[in-house]
Specification:
It is a single chain. This protein is mainly alpha-helical. It is about 75% helix and about 0% strand. It has a two-stranded antiparallel sheet. α2 packs across α3, α3 runs antiparallel to α7 and α6 packs antiparallel against α7.
Length: about 210
């Protein structure tokens, strides 16, 4: 209608709700994470939810369902993507979930020692392993590389005194993901030129609109 600045005026409230959701989630996390234990509980909850989705994504890929929650996948059928249809979005989500699991796990190892912490926090370790496997299974070069960089930052940001477990965990996970990223790049290098040309055509068509 005349005077509107939206491409879909009838969906304005829906768009505002989508914008408000991350802000409300951040405020809720700030409220629940008032102390170190509260922040740890928030991270554990996030890691647990991401671990469940990572398990589903790996099952979906292994079973060759070619669908996400009943919705046919138009692309990326050979990659883990659930609950997303795009593998890059899923890789970013699973990578953040892996980092969310690594923080509380390293904190518990610092407090209790390696063996007691792993005995009590085995669900966190399982979630971390599942999420790292899901990131690699997404076959997203950027997602794997970004997650590896995230673990490197995690290792560098951990305080030096009393946090050797965090540093080791970060460096080991980061090195493993960096190796996976290198293999992914090498295995798909021959297709990079074709993909780049296709993307440039899409960009040109978008600008022409």
């Amino acid at each position: 209608p005349p005077g509107t600045i939206s491409a879909a005026p009838d969906r304005t409230l829906h768009a505002l709700a989508r914008l408000a959701a991350p802000l409300l989630a951040g405020l809720l996390a700030l409220h629940l994470g008032g102390d170190s234990r509260g922040r740890e509980r928030v991270l554990v909850a996030l890691a647990g939810a991401a671990g469940v989705w990572a398990s589903y994504a790996l099952m979906e890929m292994a079973a060759d369902w070619n669908a996400v929650l009943g919705v046919d996948k138009p692309a990326y059928r050979a990659a883990a993507t659930a609950p997303f249809l795009n593998r890059n979005a899923f890789a970013a989500y699973a990578g953040l979930g892996a980092l969310a699991a690594a923080g509380p796990l390293a904190a518990r190892i610092r407090r209790l020692g390696a063996a007691p912490a792993l005995e009590r926090a085995w669900p966190l370790l399982a979630a971390l392993a599942m999420l790292v496997a899901a990131v690699i299974a997404s076959r997203s070069r950027g997602g794997v590389g970004a997650t590896a960089a995230g673990f490197a930052v995690f290792a560098l940001a951990a305080p030096g005194r009393g946090w050797p477990a965090a540093r080791r965990l970060g460096w080991v996970a980061g090195a493993g993901l960096a190796g996976a990223a290198a293999l992914a790049v090498l295995s798909r290098w021959s297709a990079v030129g074709v993909q780049l040309a296709e993307r440039l055509r899409v960009y040109d068509a978008t600008v022409a609109l």
